Amino acid sequence: IPEDCELFVLNGATSDITEDEQKGIVDYLQQGGKVLVLLGETEKDTPYLDAIFEEYGLERESGYIADIQRSYQQNPYYVFPLLSLGEAYAKGMSSEMVLLINAQGFTQTEPKRESITVDAFMNTSTDGYAVTAEEEKQGTYVLGATATESISANSVSENEEEEELESRLTVLGAGTMIDAGVTDTFSTLENLTLFMNVVGANFGEDTNISIEPKSLEVTY
């Protein structure tokens, strides 16, 4: 990861990272880095990627997440998550209608360090299920979360001035959150607004501007 990287994005990975890549990402985070992961659809095990999540207090569940209480047209894999948004993530949100398709989920565990704080901002209802070919396990599952950790700059540089850095690991349970097939089909969704807020939160006081593409097709 380049030294001047301000945000490292892992978008929809369909296979696991390597052990060296895992170490590189963890080292980057422990130097105050910012990482955003959108989970992709895969049937393969991803132990190295999952180890990063577990270090920051998120244990991935097997299979896909269904929610019979908050589903679209009785399709339990089309989930409207319950949102718990802080000020940074709630900018521009009015309806709070976000749709995730074929999402993967997490349960919160104890982070490996007391300095890590986890904010689960997208969750299923209590009627959530982690579904595999073998079982359907009911529970409340995390579909989006941000883990932050305050790190002393002295621990990563020789700068004598005391300065606090903040590392951020944000995980979104479905890459379909920003898929054009979803956002174009359901025009009332606020998927892109929430996603831009999640991205922008990594850049402090910067103002986020998202310009959506305009179709040049003739409308009859």
Describe the protein.
Helix content is 15%, strand content 31%. The protein is built from 4 helices and 14 strands. The strands form 4 sheets. It has a 6-stranded mixed beta sheet, with helices on one face. Strands 4-11-12 form a 3-stranded antiparallel beta sheet, with no helix packed on it. The relative contact order is 0.18.
Q: What key attributes describe this structure?
A:
three-stranded antiparallel β-sheet; 220 residues; 15% helix; alpha+beta; globular; six-stranded mixed β-sheet
Major sheet, described briefly? 6 strands, mixed
Q: What topology, given as strand order, has the largest sheet?
A: 1-2-14-13-10-7
Shape: globular
Mean pLDDT: 88
Task: Please write out the topology.
Blueprint: E1 8-13, H1 19-29, E2 34-39, H2 47-55, E3 58-60, E4 64-67, E5 71-72, E6 75-79, E7 82-83, E8 100-101, E9 106-108, E10 116-123, E11 128-131, E12 136-139, E13 142-152, E14 164-172, H3 180-183, H4 191-200
Parallel strand pairs: 1-2, 2-14
Antiparallel strand pairs: 3-9, 4-11, 5-6, 6-8, 7-10, 10-13, 11-12, 13-14
Helix pairs in contact: 1-2
Summed up:
The protein is of the alpha+beta class and 220 residues long. Helices cover 15% and strands 31% of the residues.
